Amino acid sequence: MKLFQQCFVTVALVISSIAHGAPFPEKPIRLIVPFTAGGNVDNSARTVGQGLSEQLGQSVIVENKPGANTLIGAEFVARANPDGYTLLLGTPESLAINPHVYKKINYDPLKDLVAVGLVGNFPFALVVNPKLPANNIKEFVALAKGTPGKMNYSSWGVGSTSQITFEKFNQVAGIDLIHIPFQGAAPAITAIAADQVQAMMVPLSVALPQAAGGKVKILGITTSQRFASAPDIQTFQEQGYPLVMSGWHLIVAPKKTSPAVLQTLNQHLNKALETQTTKDALIRIGIEPSPGSIAQASKLMQTEYERWGKTAKDAGIAIEKAE
Length: 323
Fold this sequence. Notes:
With 323 residues, the protein is an alpha/beta fold. The protein is built from twelve helices and eleven strands.
């Protein structure tokens, strides 16, 4: 009888364990970055990964899977086991742009991925060569209209946020600069400094050190309000051009991830973003921390999917296949 009771207790414990599951997380989490190491997105992921690791009490390992305008990393996460241990540091490219510019992709961000939470927002800055005879947006637009077909702009690739933000500027201002794509932000902004290309939309965090070194000139930023780390730089809106196109970083997981796991991740992400260490580190790299709910992040995914997609379609941007 005693042996039977011991067996019964053991079976009951096993059943209870299966029913309730092991505490999450019980092993390291992978945070996939669909860009190369060392850039704006990678720095954001490593900052947030460290903060999230401290809150969860479990390692968060940042893994770079760059290529094809973020398709490689995004598809990897969309097809991953939905257990909360593989996440994506998503950007407009991976979550809002690619479905509208590629003829065919192997994931649908709104059907195959689900929001964990927003990391933060950042402005784009319009940068030009210091010798260009324009010191504000109005003068730049006048110059572009006065020399039709002769001015161009660089970006870090076809379908990038850099290209689409500039195309939105073209639409708003009634100008038509020629797009010159580069393989990465570094050579694209170097071309501005070398006076090979006239202008570029680039994250403010990238523009500021270049401007401080006299390599580029900043004419305005694309947020609705001035940015805390650069209060002297005027917005496009202040200068009479209603262009608001913030970049953002948002953590997502495979679609069928359990709501309980998503909630755990969201709560700990928010705690990380609210710590002074993580907050200060993100602001230093030009990102405004934006803690919030899963519902808020999901709504952002939907609205930004529509907004970036419309701009890309209006500009006629299309990519036949992933390289």
